[in-house]
Amino acid sequence: MAFTQLQNEDTYTEKNLICPLTHKLFQDPVLAGDGHVYERPAIVQWIEVNGTSPITLEPLKITDLHTEENMKRLCQGQQPPVTYSTGNDEVRLPTLRISQMSPITEQPPIVSTTQRSFKNNNCISYMWCIGISMILFILIIIASIRLSAKSRSTVPSTYAINTSLPPLVATTTYILPNNCTLRQITPVFSLNNSPSFDFQFYSILYTAIARQTMITFAFRQDPGYWVIDDMSMRETNTGIEVLQNGDFENELLAPFSYCNQQGIDVTSTTYPSNNQSHSGTYAFVDFTANAPDYISQMLTLAIGHMYNISFSLLNSGGPVNSFMVMMSV
Fold first, then answer.
1. What is the strand order of the sheet 212-222 is part of?
2. H or E segment and range at residue 240
3. Per residue in 170-187, pLDDT tens?
């Protein structure tokens, strides 16, 4: 989400007003040297810890930050969106700016031609009025029945496979929570049926909501494999590392625990460096099929503190593949 200094605040959209670090409406937006706009406290904290752009990963200094006055003025007139919770899902409804609302003007009462005719003729026949109303009512019922029948004819009650069509690529459905996670789930990153790629670096920000929190990595490849290495989770204020053995250099999976909700045996292991690890000697390689594998580690976090989750990931690109990072409490 790159920005340049805009003169006309009407060109901003609702998406532009959300900080990519805090995912909240801007309070003090600044334009950074990488061309992106951030919330000042969040990007200052990021630069102090990492010294780079969180988006381009190029070097970035606090002196490269400049207040975005137009966006700040626009955000001051913006109300936060309404959020509805439906269990595991949230629905965020965008707000309507006052400038987008049309004034409501009082309109004179509308009197139909039929009403005026009835008044002018003193409703010549009361029974005639009742008859017209009944006819209209019957016509409305008939139209509703026809529309309902047409809708039912286009939606089959059972579904059959049309073998003349090309097969659809399956997707992975995660039933959460399950016996491999805790009760309250917060997905923070996911890939689904992505093409193959060599090691790529990913970085995610997470704000702790509980002291005891489980981080879980889920994998599936049919057929193929994932490789993950150099995993880290650091508190952004202090830089303290809270994830143990994220580089798997002790040759063991511990203190990570393995789980497969369908009871499938471990089909993954740590491998020595033979083009499998990103750095060092070992990495975690997962060959799971049919159902996702999970590796998890219980962490002790400071509630309200922000943490940077990062890792290097390789995808061999099986036709059906998925990867997810989730936090559960």
1. 185-192, 320-328, 212-222, 293-300, 257-259
2. none
3. 556 666 777 778 888 999
